Amino acid sequence: MRKRPQFLKSSCLRQVLSLLVNMEFSEFGKKFTDKAGILSLMEDMARAMGGSRDMIMMGGGNPGYIETVQEIVRKRLLRICADRQAFHRLVGVYNSPQGEPGFIRDLAALLRREYNWPLGPENICLTNGSQTSFFLLFNMFAGEYAGKERKRIRLPLTPEYIGYADIGLNRDFFIATRPRIDYLEDHLFKYRIDFDGIRLGEETGAICVSRPTNPTGNVVTDEEVGRLDRLAGEHGVPLIIDSAYGQPFPGIVYSEVMPIWNENIVLCLSLSKLGLPAVRTGIIVARQEIVAAVSGMNAIMSLAPGSFGAVLAGELVGSGDILSVSKTLIRPFYRDKVEKALAIIDREFKGLAYRVHRPEGAMFLWLWFQGLPISSLELYERLKVRGVLVISGHYFFPGLEDDPWMHKNECLRLTYSQDEAQVAAGIVIIAQEVRRAFAEAGMRV
After folding, report:
1. What is the CATH number of the domain that holds 353?
2. Helix (H, G, I), strand (E, B), or coil: what is residue 96?
3. Confidence class of residue 42 from pLDDT cuts 50, 70 and 90?
4. Among candidate residues 97, 152, 98, 161, the one with its CA nearest the CA of residue 131
5. 3-state helix, strand, coil in the chain (%, to 5)
């Protein structure tokens, strides 16, 4: 009898799992019904956003409500609904496996015009969300090869996105390197890539880095991206850049960095953080062979990616307004929120042994409680009892699961994208619970 994962506590999942207890699955089935951090995250987020109880949601990556952006999208949807042909295109037509052709054509033109990238529609395809993009790309470049050779995804910087961790079809799917840590003033710190610790061999199928990084808000510098690009080229593997929060859109980056693409780079974008997470539209910009391969996988797995997001956002892309909306509406919204959240942390965490990763982008704060006497997972559970949902930091270290580094269990990720009063209330409770943990251990804070 298979043991029921203890972290799945929603009534819906309990009902489903009760039906599966005596069911025997393939290795694939076992892999994707086992305990996974991303499933815990999404279930917690669904419960909080669904209002099943009075919870402060500081754990998920749901974008904040930006009224001006939502109004742009709402008006666009109304125009589509008033136009029979446009509405039919929205919901009544299968696209090609590559995705909605008008959106792809306009996006290729925008990227050529703005960045002088030598690409055309053959270099872009859509998927049903970024998570699908990474499932396809990672398993395309890592796993079993002919002759029983096995390759893995190289993560040059950890912590990294929780959604990567369980996405591989094989076990032992990632190779990761501990970061260097810069200790900064005002309780801040920053992770940097330790290039001296990276040793690429035949086992590397691709390099992947998110920019800005979820969970930490770290933005890999232009110089670091250039070094990774050269390293990937020297070893004949692609560099995958996850820009779901970054440039060119939605542009939630607080430092001046340049978007980059060439034929050895696979750039992954999304419409989610524009305020459209429900439309599930991922975008891959890559050389033609990779786009053709992903398109073929789309056909096998889902016939074609959905049209809704591409048609809805098509006007923004065609006009180029997607870039100005990102720069003038979306980025200032999150910049204001992070500054307010940091001010509350400075006030409430006074006297605690803590640091915050310097927030350079995305919509998260990464808290490090040095010497925390309980694990970050236990702290997460205590906070959930208090009605505050965050994410335990230990989930964000794929490739370092067997590394005994204590730092992995001293961190929390929280989002500042939601209601400011709730974020403030959540930070107060986090400070209380951390103080309690130190007090119970007889340790001074």
Report:
1. 3.90.1150.10
2. strand
3. low
4. 161
5. 45, 15, 40
Determine the pLDDT at residue 32.
72
pLDDT tens digit sequence for 350-393: 999 999 999 999 999 999 999 999 999 999 999 999 999 999 99
Give the pLDDT of residue 441: 79
138-149: burial string, b at 16+ Cβ within 10 Å, e else: bbbbbbeeeeee
Provide the greatest CA pair distance for the chain: 69
With beta carbons less than 8 A apart as the criterion, state whether 287 and 261 touch: no
Distance CA 97, CA 125 (A): 8
Domain containing 37: what range? 11-66+326-440
| Amino acid 442: pLDDT | 75
State the DSSP code for 17: H
pTM for this prediction: 0.90
Can you spell out the DSSP letters for 292-336? Answer: HHHHHHHHHHHSS--SHHHHHHHHHHHHTHHHHHIIIIIHHHHHH
Q: Is the pLDDT of residue 31 over 50?
A: yes
Q: Does residue 275 sit in the same domain as residue 411?
A: no
